[in-house]
Amino acid sequence: MKMKQLLLLMSMVLGLFVYTSCEEDDDHYSLDKFWLSSGTITKTTDYYYVTTDGGSVLWPAASSVNESYLEDGMRILVNYTILDDGATDDIYDYYVKINDVDEILTKPYFEFTEETPVDIIDSIGNDPIKILDTWFTGDYLNVEFNYGGGVGLHFVNLVYDATNPVVDETGEIILELKHNDNGDPYSYVQWGVASFDISGLQQEDVSELKLLIRSNYPDGEYDYNKVLIYNYEELSQTMSAQKVFNNKAVALDVELN
């Protein structure tokens, strides 16, 4: 089984402590401020642009990143400075300078079955990890999380256990964020975001599913335990989502002073 290395986005983590709306002071953008958004790359042979999870379309009028690194459909955290608003007849909401891009770990969920070897289950791990937030972007379930670690390689997976698939009383499908620290000692808290393709859970006879999202917290108890509605017909039409910060719904766009 292939496992992707978790890409830690420590260069951007400080941005998660200050949140404002992209609508603020639209006509007086400052070049000494920048924004942090999760989003998706659209790229052709001639150009690329970014659609944030909040639905804003960003045109890179200037860029400090190597475009050859970017791929069509890549999930990213993008650090950018707003230069101007897009024209009213343009598809772009903002003209921006791209300051930095970090790829978000993107992978399908992992399914446990009766045939799954014990060593594979063990390799997925059961070490503590804390979910901070979750939101949808199309068929991706995005998970923001942290855990203790140092400098070693960690594995993070979203697991659907087909041998214990639902909550008996309510029928909610259980998805658990799993973590293998590979013996890396707890030196400090590490932070990350991952996007999991959950389209394989879709059923032909229904348009939405109830998902119970949980993780194993350091005290050994299940943490987060949040029920999300995965309406794949609606999400495929809008292809946008919102993230909740401080009990207020705003796009994942944050301004850094």
Quick overview of this protein structure:
The protein is mainly beta. The protein contains two helices and 17 strands. Helices cover 5% and strands 47% of the residues.
The major pleated sheet works out as: 5 strands, mixed, barrel
Largest sheet strand order: 1-2-3-5-4
Q: Which band does the percent of strand residues land in?
A: over 45%
What is the oligomer described by this structure?
single chain
What is the tally of helical segments?
Answer: 2
Our measurement of the CA-to-CA distance between the termini, rounded to an integer number of angstroms, reads 43 Å
Rounded mean pLDDT score = 82
Structural class: mainly beta
Overall form: globular
| Residue share in helix | under 10%
SSE string, helices as H and strands as E = EEEEEEEHEEEEEEEHEEE
- The low-confidence parts are 1-26, 239-257
Rg for CA atoms: 19 Å
What does this structure look like?
With 257 residues, the chain is mainly beta. It is built from two helices and 17 strands. The strands form four sheets. Strands 1-2-3-5-4 form a five-stranded mixed beta barrel. A hairpin with a 4-residue loop joins strand 1 and strand 2. The chain starts with 33 loop residues before the first strand and ends with a strand.
